[in-house]
Amino acid sequence: MSNLERDPREIRCGAEEGTGSEVLTGREVPLGGPRAMLVSRTLPHVHRRMIGAWCFVDAYGPQRAAMRVPPHPHTGLQTVSWLIAGEVLHRDSLGTLQEIRPGQLNLMTAGRGIAHSEESPETVLHGVQLWVALPGEHRHTGPGFEHHPALPVLSGTGFEAIVIMGLLGGVASPATAYSPLVGAQIAVGGVCEVPIDPAFEHGVLLLDGEVAELEPGALTYLPPGRSRVRLSGHGRVLLIGGEPFEEEIVMWWNFVGRSHDEIVAFRKEWMEGEGFGAVEGYDGEPLPAPVLPGTPLKPRGRVR
């Protein structure tokens, strides 16, 4: 899944320091037309645009729906697709055709440019779609795709964590990451303390069940300096985190860049059918890019 808003706001991200914990309430965003599936977008938020290199968090379901996201472009980021229920078929301009199911990871690196589509039959869908901004030295890397059908697990008293990306408690995901970060699904069964890197800022999102420390539909931000996160209850949560991102970026529609002119160039290439390749096998037309705003896009800090 990606950003299908027809009037996307400029998303301003980059390096600035926050001071304490925050609760980032999600906003409902429809994906597509009149029968669109609704997602809850907690990042970027009006007050905080990034957590480490994580710059986009959409949570959806459980709901019965048929996903249909036409071919569309990406630059300067990685898409992280994670399901709790359902199945989604990924196609991209590298020729990849890969279904994803619960507990499996689809990781797409856009780098200098890639196009993809996602679709599913009508079924119960429940999952998250995440983006990771690529640091400057890697943002023009060649596009790539990885499918990881099995991922390592960190177990402790009262919890079991599937390490989706990066490193958690000494357990490392095999997925390619371009900056120090973590992404994990944690099953909470009672009272637990999950080890985290004190150099990272973190976000915690309730996926299902009840966990006392978390509000449904909200992403709880934790600043650097903590070595553990305490959780109590029974449910599943998403943990994301990373070293505070030290670059300012411009994020608009499905592009991550560094300047207004760069975004204009990405949009032009997509609309003219250049630079991103073709997604073969999708029954439908590519998604047209929205109209750019009337004022220049500017790189900004990761918090407002």
From TrEMBL:
Keywords: Iron, Metal-binding
Binding positions (Fe cation): 72, 74, 116, 118
Tree of life domain: Bacteria
The Pirin N-terminal domain, residue ranges: 40-132
All residue ranges annotated as the Pirin C-terminal domain in the record: 189-273
InterPro entries from the UniProt entry: Pirin (IPR012093), Pirin_C_dom (IPR008778), Pirin_N_dom (IPR003829), RmlC-like_jellyroll (IPR014710), RmlC_Cupin_sf (IPR011051)
Cofactor: binding comment: Binds 1 Fe cation per subunit.
Molecular function in Gene Ontology: metal ion binding
Gene3D superfamilies attached to this UniProt entry: Jelly Rolls
Protein's name according to its UniProt entry: Pirin
